[in-house]
Amino acid sequence: MEKLTGLNKLKTVVFISGTGSNFKNLIEFAKIKKTPISINLVISDTSKAKGLKYADQFNIKKKIFNFQNNKDTEKHILILLKKEKINFICLAGFMKILSKNFIKGFDGKIINIHPSLLPKYKGLNTHYRAIINKDKFAGCTVHYVTEKLDSGKVIMQKKIKVAIKDNPTSLAKKVLKQEHKLYPAAILKILN
Asked: What's the CATH code, domain 1-107?
């Protein structure tokens, strides 16, 4: 991807479904002068996503889409992204799988953060699975999005030690702290 200056930051949308801590983190990252992105829009598949409050707090346009008919929904999202001149997509706790056609339209410009050391533990319940399997290490991964769930090329990973006393909740907290460092670092890696 091309080098960017402060004047031509990549207009970015963040897709969320939950608490939005990575969304908030990306907003703060985007405010830094030398960052290659600006957060212009947030999309959620539910009006109950707690992270939507950050859109209000930071004055970012938000849209909620019902994903019952994925094909129609994605068509409407693509129209919106074109209208808003969005050219980079960050998935942050987004709980829907985007179609091959949608991904093709943004080839190489959609990334995701996942709370495991991919290819280990694709999908849900990653921390529970790491604890049950008595893993010595856990972590997070930023990767390109492809039509296969959590299978795109890895951009960066951060590994942390699993403590004997860790449970899925404590491990999730530790990993989330690392996610907040890793996501901006991965964006800088691919865009600078």
From this structure: 3.40.50.170
Beta carbons of 6 and 84 less than 8 angstroms apart: no
The active-site residue, picked from 114, 127, 143, 180, is 114
- pLDDT digit string (tens) for 12-64? 999 999 999 999 999 999 999 899 999 999 999 999 999 999 999 999 999 99
Q: Is 143 a catalytic residue?
A: no
Query: Taking the model in full, what pTM does it have?
Result: 0.94
CATH class of this structure's domain 113-192: alpha beta
Q: Please, are residues 133 and 112 in contact by the beta-carbon 8 Å criterion?
A: no
DSSP 111: E
Measured distance CA(135)–CA(131) in Å, rounded: 6
